Every structure is written in structure tokens, then in C-alpha cells.
Input
Amino acid sequence: MNKRLVVFGGSGFVGQSIVNQAVRKNFQVISISRGGRPKQYDSWMDQVKWVAADVFEPAEWQDQLMSGDVVVDAIGILTESKAKKQTYQNYHYELVRLVVEQLNQKTPSLFVYISAAHGLPFFKGYLYWKKQAEDFLAMQSFPVSIFRPSLLYGTGRKYSRTMAKAIKGLKKLPFLRAFFVVIQPTSVDLLAKNIVETIEESLEGKDDAKRETSHS
Ligand SMILES: NC(=O)c1ccc[n+]([C@@H]2O[C@H](COP(=O)([O-])OP(=O)(O)OC[C@H]3O[C@@H](n4cnc5c(N)ncnc54)[C@H](OP(=O)(O)O)[C@@H]3O)[C@@H](O)[C@H]2O)c1
Output
């Protein structure tokens, strides 16, 4: 597939899995993140253009964005740090507005947004601002695909498999099931495969009837 994906947060846990799958499918891939190329090495990484840029500094990445066909937003935070301005509002919503604004009327073939299936206990605002971003994207004129994963696990995040196993176990205990029932641990590589397949289908015009597609 000779199309270009611009993946914001392509060096992260979810982002790397998406970028890896996309490279396997012969997409050209540009990843944008502050650190640029990930620290650990894998040969597929040589096929990616790793751009070191802060998403809140559009001058650092706007030309990359304009060169792409598909935009993927895989940036997000688990916990807020108000001192560093790392708030859910900024990371889950304002950055989406910023990227769309920087498209400057250019319509991407598809905009993929990684939302979430549910909020996090004690982290007020995590899901609220993701929903705000979803609503904002639904108003745009270009096709949008929203993915709403639950807890993700994979080799890229050491503790994630242990956590997924523990949650599966806790769900079997009748008195705890109610607390954990919404959490459906999923493989990050499976999510990434679904995302890349959706991108391929969208580019092939297979889902023309659905302007906005959602995936849980
Ligand atoms: N992991 C899960 O279980 C899970 C479940 C449901 C939904 N999600 C969603 O999936 C998305 C990705 O999560 P993740 O677990 O992959 O997070 P992650 O591993 O922390 O990755 C975040 C990525 O964003 C980049 N980034 C952060 N701040 C940035 C900035 N200011 N400018 C440019 N790049 C920036 C990071 O690279 P640098 O630090 O180098 O900039 C990294 O590439 C999030 O929206 C999250 O809410 C995750």
C-alpha cells in the first residue's frame, strides 16, 4: 500500500504496535513524538520516519502532517500533571482540535482516534475529554474511525500481561466481579491489526457507507 500514515505517538505502547503492523502492510509511516525513535531497536523500525516533535508545537510537525494520507492519534495520558500542563483536556481533546486545525482544510482519507472503552477509577476526566474529542471529530467532513479499547496488554509493556491475568482472575470472584466487569483485557497487537485493516478497507473504499466508524 503506497499510502502514508502520520501517527502521533507512534513510539508509544499502542503507537508502536500500530506502526509495526502498518510497516508490514507496506504503508509509509511517519511517527511524531517528543522522543522520536524508540530507545530499544528492532529492524522494522528502520522503515519508519521517526520525527522528534512536541504535538503542542505545530511548527515542528505541520509539514509532516500535510504529507500524509491517514492521520492516527495515539497520544494520551493515564494521569494528569497540572504543573506540566499534562491535563486530560489538553492531551485527549485540545491536541485533536490542534491537529485538525493544522490540516488547514486538507481532508485526510481517514482520521483514527484511540479513545477508551471506560474511564479509570479515581481519574476523573479521563473519559470525559475523550468523548469530547469523539464529538468534535464526528462534526468533521472527513472519515473518522474511533477505537475504544479496554485495558491493553502486550510485550511492549512489561506489567500489562500480569495485570490482564490478575483482572481475569479477579473477575471470577463473585464479590469482586462487579468492580472489574467492564475491564476486558485485549491484546495490543490485535487492536493494531484491526486498526490497520480498517485503514486498508477505508482506503479501498469498502466502508463508503459509514462515514464515522466506531470499534469497541
Ligand atoms: N494502554 C492501554 O491499556 C490503553 C487502553 C485504552 C486506551 N488507551 C489509549 O491509547 C492511547 C495510547 O496509549 P499508550 O498506552 O500507548 O500511551 P504511551 O505508551 O504513554 O504512549 C504515548 C505516546 O505519545 C507520545 N507523546 C506524549 N506526549 C507527547 C507530546 N506532547 N508530543 C508528542 N508526542 C507525545 C509519547 O512519546 P514521547 O513521550 O516521546 O513524546 C508516546 O509515543 C492513549 O490515548 C490511551 O488513552 C490505552
User: Anything to note?
Assistant: Residues 9, 11-15, 33-35, 54-56, 74-76, 114, 116, 149, 151-152 surround NAP (CB under 6 Å).
